[in-house]
Amino acid sequence: MSGAIVVGVGPGIGLAVARRFVREGMSAGLIARSDATVKAAAAELGNADVLSVTADVTDEPGLRAALDRVVEAYGVPEVVVYNAALIQPDRIGDLSAQQHLDALAVNVVGAITTAAHLAPAMAERGSGSFLITGGMPASKPEYASLSLGKAGVRTVVSLLDQQYGAAGLHAASVTVSGGVAPGSVWDPDEIANHYWRLHTQTPAEWMHEVII
């Protein structure tokens, strides 16, 4: 089975999603900004076939190089999960223009870079899933930059579907409505099951957003 790539593989959803996919026999490319974070994730996955790579999603050449390393190791991925986000409380007026751009770079532009680098080859093959971790089903004034970013995620999914859906690429988001914590309504392992279900849907079943 072809591999998965998880961009933003921190200890919550990212790790849980990687665990869910490798449990199905897939290899996994794990990408995170921190070397310690990505190595810890790999250690949690035990003997699974994983490749750990560090990259900052706001560094386009670095992110593209990291994606290339995974493709060189495992081939064009069957599923890509973009899970990077800058989660911070802020209201309109709290951030400078540059700070808003910095948040957008993580929350949206990194996903665009990842898709631009991988989606054409996935579409050429005629199969695969590009899944993005969403959130904020309704905008919240106390999380302005994140609300804007998650609205952007929905648009990215729609654009990818329009551009590549007919070629077989399933674009979707998993919108998480609250704080992720084991044993809660938003348990990361339960959330990870939604990614697997989206990935295994047939084109006739495709959903483009799951809200949990």
What are its keywords?
alpha/beta; Rossmann fold; seven-stranded parallel β-sheet; 6 helices; globular
Count of domain modules: 1
Share of helix, binned: 40-55%
String of helices and strands: EHEHEHEHEHEHE
Gross morphology is globular
Q: What is the percentage of strand-forming residues? A: 15-25%
* Low-pLDDT runs: none
CATH level 1 name: Alpha Beta
What's the rounded overall pLDDT mean?
A: 96
Derived from helix and strand composition plus strand pairing, the structural class reads: alpha/beta
| DSSP summary, beta strand count | 7
End-to-end separation in angstroms reads 28 Å
How is this structure best described in words?
With 212 residues, this protein is α/β, with parallel strands linked by helices. The protein has one domain: 3-Layer(aba) Sandwich (Rossmann fold), CATH 3.40.50. 47% of the residues lie in helices and 17% in strands. It has 6 helices and 7 strands. It has helices spanning 13-23, 35-44, 60-74, 97-125, 144-164, 188-200, and strands at residues 4-7, 28-32, 50-54, 79-82, 129-135, 170-176, 209-211. A 7-stranded parallel β-sheet has the order 3-2-1-4-5-6-7, sandwiched between helices. Strand 6, helix 6 and strand 7 form a beta-alpha-beta unit. Helix 3 (60-74) runs parallel beside helix 4 and helix 4 packs parallel to helix 5 (144-164). The protein is globular, with a radius of gyration of 16 Å. The mean pLDDT is 96.
